[in-house]
Amino acid sequence: MTIQQKGYQKVKITDRFWSKRLEVIHDHVIPYQWAALNDRLEDAEPSHAIENFRIAAGEAEGEYHGMVFQDSDVAKWLEAAAYSLEHHPNPELEKTADEVIALLQKAQGEDGYLNTYYMLKEPNQRWTNLRDNHELYCAGHLIEAAVAYYQATGKRAFLDLMSKYADYIDTVFGPEEGKLKGYDGHQEIELALLKLYDVTGNDKYLNLSRYFIDERGKQPHFFDIEKKKRQESSPFFFHDGYAYHQAHLPVRDQKEAVGHAVRAVYMYTAMADLAAKTNDETLKKACEALWENVTQKQMYLTGGIGSMAFGEAFSFQYDLPNDVSYTETCASIGLVFWAKQMLELAADHKYADVMEKALYNGTISGMDLDGKKFFYVNPLEVQPEACEKRNDQKHVKAVRQTWFGCACCPPNLARLISSIGHYIYSQKERELFVHLYMGHETNVQLAGCRVQLAQETNYPWDGDVTMTVSPEKAYEFTVALRIPGWSRHAVLKVNGEVVDHFPIMKNGYVYITRTWEDQDKIELSIQMTIEQIKANPLVRHNVGKAALQRGPLVYCLEEADNGGQLQNILLPRKAELKAEYDEDLLEGVVVISGKAERIDEKDWGGSLYRTAEIQTSPADIKAVPYYAWCNREPGEMRVWINQSR
Amino acid sequence: MTIQQKGYQKVKITDRFWSKRLEVIHDHVIPYQWAALNDRLEDAEPSHAIENFRIAAGEAEGEYHGMVFQDSDVAKWLEAAAYSLEHHPNPELEKTADEVIALLQKAQGEDGYLNTYYMLKEPNQRWTNLRDNHELYCAGHLIEAAVAYYQATGKRAFLDLMSKYADYIDTVFGPEEGKLKGYDGHQEIELALLKLYDVTGNDKYLNLSRYFIDERGKQPHFFDIEKKKRQESSPFFFHDGYAYHQAHLPVRDQKEAVGHAVRAVYMYTAMADLAAKTNDETLKKACEALWENVTQKQMYLTGGIGSMAFGEAFSFQYDLPNDVSYTETCASIGLVFWAKQMLELAADHKYADVMEKALYNGTISGMDLDGKKFFYVNPLEVQPEACEKRNDQKHVKAVRQTWFGCACCPPNLARLISSIGHYIYSQKERELFVHLYMGHETNVQLAGCRVQLAQETNYPWDGDVTMTVSPEKAYEFTVALRIPGWSRHAVLKVNGEVVDHFPIMKNGYVYITRTWEDQDKIELSIQMTIEQIKANPLVRHNVGKAALQRGPLVYCLEEADNGGQLQNILLPRKAELKAEYDEDLLEGVVVISGKAERIDEKDWGGSLYRTAEIQTSPADIKAVPYYAWCNREPGEMRVWINQSR
């Protein structure tokens, strides 16, 4: 069980790296998104999201506009606002949020139902198209927001509204006679109901979540039944209409990740949470199998998932093309959610390593340093002309966009980043697991003892972390510190004395059990070396290539630093590379630079093919963290660098 | 001017390699296509192509069915049949062809018009949508067929019908007051009218062709004018609706190949032919610029062109991905047409090298060895699972298909292969240019002297060619023999005596000027070595890769010989490779085999990424000619092989 759930505590982020991002979210993203939701952006299509609620509440007249899941944009904004209020009090923001909540209350039906699409557009068609119309998805996001707002502000109003909605949903779905035997086309309600269970303790929500999870994929197939009722005959756009929704098999029988990547990881998150909460062994096994499949066969080095645009989906094992990947920001965010829940099942650094990888690379790459532009798709290789001229790469943008028609990623990033503190720890009776390293202060309840915790670090630029553990009284418990899988060496000290951590390490966590006293100090020094990463040779796109990584950060070459035609930079296997902090570059980053080779292009003249071997010359290269790419002039980018002979 | 045009002579192919293909065309493809045109194939959509003509002729009742260009399938079949009759007399086939021609005559309008789509479906809408509806395209194919049939059989009926049609078209289009100032959306009529000019000598056809060529791309734009007349407002599907049709600029100003690849090369063919016929310098310059652009920046090693499925089109310079290429069979066929016409402009081996490259690789790869299955798209790298599961590769088929909804490629191959003899020579006053080497017999008129010619060779398996030159009387003229650009060494003998060919070589042709006598013998021995070809480093997809080539043939690795995961075969730069003829494999091919390396896949275990370097083991590899791939069990294929360290 996690801190934010049991004995929830606020986390104050003091980290240099993350504070910047939190500030950007607070100062730019949340206000910008508020303007978007209220149709005040000049350069974007009107969202109409707030207006839909106003119409439903009787405060305005007009018709519904927007995607069928437009409500969820408001929900994600409220959730991000809630997390932001947690560490950055802002009465004005809180007042606005309260007003939105009041609006939701006014819009909500007598029975608890709240979905402006159906209320305004198809009032008699509730629950007739679960597969496509995101009804439970929107409900789930509203529930998540309500839980976050309650935790951040202590105010119950929103939570009560959404409990009422959940109670109503419970009357509609379930195994009982007369109830719909269905589930959502876009998973989300499952994980939200579990959060609602955490704060309310009401078993009903846990049971309903389990019902949705277990009903999925059963035959006769619910999507067919409801489709028949709709008298709809058109085929589903994806080649396997069940797999797209991960409804091709009962979830306990699923071993390979398929279909829409965001739907998948949201579902896996709920499965892992439910398995942990209920000690459900078969569900746990399914989660583990899916985890192995995703992270060992279908995940990009950046923590990106979803290797094709068609269906925003997983394609197949080891199919990880770098230039046409989908790697949606939201999918990496969902991977973070899932990893955190896997850590509840077992403290294994393999989960935290992936969580960290996605956090420092494939999620935050979705936003520019100013928080003003966003990527939906986070490719590992970009040639701008190809994005412009090749239809099969048009989903890959060479520059971030201000907003999207389907605006799921920016608010999702906002809620992830503003809740970053919730991913640092988890706990279990007398064990405190430390998954992430970032400057912060918080306090937790460990078996009844209040413990103040703080970290100081320059992470991810170096791996020195000082952690202070201050129980309110001398108290025995375990602090289990993660030693990242990317590290070759680490030194651990407690109160200045070196601790030989190998004998007390299990699955990448060092278990320090002792009687802790006020101001006890843990010093962990994790060596960060520049690594040349190679991909499994079954990944046909990466043979003969290497990627640079240092600590949790994946690096890339950009045209701004290296000129164009990045394919012609060849990285020697024994390249001498150095890492140096450059405070003036990209708001301060550690740059990797050194000598490589470059294929001589001019030597070729006009010919397209020849028998003579290529010639190379020495060339300086400079790599920057992947998350920070595309913050200067647009150009080529490449993570996987061709290796030299 | 070419042999088939001026002093047209039949060519009897005795070549081992090409005879097999001609036989397949005659025995299988032409009858199969006849069955297709008559809706007698069980496993294919009905073509309705003959039925459309029967309805138009009043011999049947019913409605038009098929593509808007369905007539052209009949035309291409007639053209292929004509070429086949030239070297393979077949009274039954000729009778069938005569019957079809009689049907066309019956269907043709009083005014000469003949297009079943418009006659049956939109009788009052002739010439209202030149951009999309292939009206002049179909006319062009009918004209080409008529010319071929006249040349093969000496029968004028079809030629007269089509002259009448062309005369009518000439009353519709042209610079004169009241005529349409337009041109076709799919170029074809231009090259056909020039062929009609060749056999009739009627300047009208040359002038009309030139009109179409020169009108193209002028402003105000004809496609806009006719679109406005149609009161059509929908946008064109391609990102540049002019460029798709090569109508973005007047043709003389075009320097880069853009848009739909088949349209492009059909147009370039006509431009080159017109330039040669009229000594048109600016048109010649445009042809040369476009040739350099296509062959030095946009052509695959196999002679394939068109690197994207979207628009079946050129994408941009040096953008030559191997797994998502379009490389349509028809586009390579058009490249052969164009190359032949460029050779009329100048005898330069660069044109013949490309012509040969396309003939021996990217065109005939479109058909299996039995002539029963066809590729529309000829990729250079195939991973069957990707073709099946990735939407962006669904245009690439891992196995050849029996027929296509848009059945352009199979009949196009049939007409190319059955006219292969027309590509061997061209002539100019007292010069006979020998472009290709294949066993055959023919005779030509050279400045009034009849000359019997024959070649014997085992090409493309070895480069020894014996050519017999037998003028009817002792006669001085020049035989200019091409020394292929892929050859490192050649030995030339005339009547047994070695000729030092360097002093008499120009642009890759050896000019032997002498008084030729009966049974004079030229022996040319062109060295064929196994070459590792590298691509220009601006082709980002091929850095670190090499392709195998021997003589005119490009080779590939197939899973059938090398197992799967072909990306893991690494070709040493100094690999010892041998070429051996295997008469039992793929109907007899020279196989390239030798020692390479293979990345150890098992050594990886489960991990997707790691820091340790890959390990390799020695591995035997076996490469087969690209044209013959996919004639065994389906599997992976790869032309560009990763190079070893």
From TrEMBL, chains A, B:
Organism: Bacillus swezeyi
Name of this chain's protein: Glycoside hydrolase family 127 protein
Domain named Non-reducing end beta-L-arabinofuranosidase-like GH127 middle: residues: 432-528
BP term (GO), one: carbohydrate metabolic process
Non-reducing end beta-L-arabinofuranosidase-like GH127 C-terminal domain mapped to chain residues: 531-642
PANTHER family listed in its UniProt record: DUF1680 DOMAIN PROTEIN (AFU_ORTHOLOGUE AFUA_1G08910)
Taxonomy of the source species: Bacteria, Bacillati, Bacillota, Bacilli, Bacillales
Pfam family, one: Glyco_hydro127C
Domain Non-reducing end beta-L-arabinofuranosidase-like GH127 catalytic: 10-421
